[in-house]
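Predict the 3D structure for this chain.
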Amino acid sequence: MGAVKNYDFSVLDLSRLDELFELESTAETYNNITYEEWKDIFEWRVIKNPFRNNKVPGYMVKHGDRIVANWDHVYVPFMLGNWKGVVPNPASYVHPDYSKQKGYIWLLMSEKILKNSNFEVTITTHSQKFVETLWKRYGALEMAYTNINFQGILSLKKMIDMYASKKNRLIGVLSKAGLHSLISPFVQMKGYKEISSPPVRSEIISPFDLKSASDNMLDELCDEALSVYNIGIMRSAAYLRWRYSDNPLSRQYHTLMIRNSEQRVVGLSILRFLEDTSHVSIYEFIYNPNISDSSRELINAVVKVARSLGGMTISSRIITKDIAKEFLELGMVEKVKSHHQALFLTNSTVFLPEESDVLFTFGDSNIFSNI
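Done. Predicted structure below.
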């Protein structure tokens, strides 16, 4: 790759981690992160990624000898119709000193990398509006429904306490006095209400240890779960352990499993709980579709565990159309963005399925930054 207007494109140089840290630490994602913390995350997602197998780790842009932008590749197992393989999931960083040239650098990087890609399939799961526009310029297609998520309130009391302390002095006084019964009707009139808490018939194992779990059990559950999809990242014991157990930020994740009275594994979910916001995000939602009411049982278990963790609010991607209905029945609210979060770019050898059944969770959308 040659120089274009004093910008030089080349394969990412993994011997220059200190410079890559200087570049990536300017992003909001890595605000206040130390070099060692960043290095652990970078090595996990790029260098020690078990699916990379010596593939190119990404690309960088130099101005002179200074690295001013990079495009990291995280490799994940992916399915697209009948095609299955390992794909790059890239994300880019441009140094703030070059913010005025950001659009130009992005365009050049995309021209070099997307237009001339040697990969059969390339995906992005952290799309912003301008990213979607740029990728579509090279023929990228949307992953259906990845512009939708669902949000719900787990604890109205906690929400009242939080907003009271920040926005309303009177409500703050009533809240501190424990008079939530006087506040709740007013808040509910504004459209705020807790999601329901249906009973869980299955046994809940929480926390569930992914590291010590049987490979066969996890692989069988993932295979059953994936049978209802034809587009998305392929889950397996190896993928889940790398994505969550080996993750330097593994302390943020909470895994639960449910099994029925016949001791059959019904489903498994991984939640991300942030104590500073009391928000719970559903990162994985893996269930056996061949067991009656398995998705509903797993949703009910997720709500119960999320509340036990101290969650105030909860959110999820759509997962499937049927589960979307169940989210709405619980009282969650659908939010639609103006653009799709996930896109894929294919070459002429990969044929698209006639109908799309997309698997896409927060675990996919945040694989790069863990935000």
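The CA atoms of residues 270 and 284 lie 5 Å apart.
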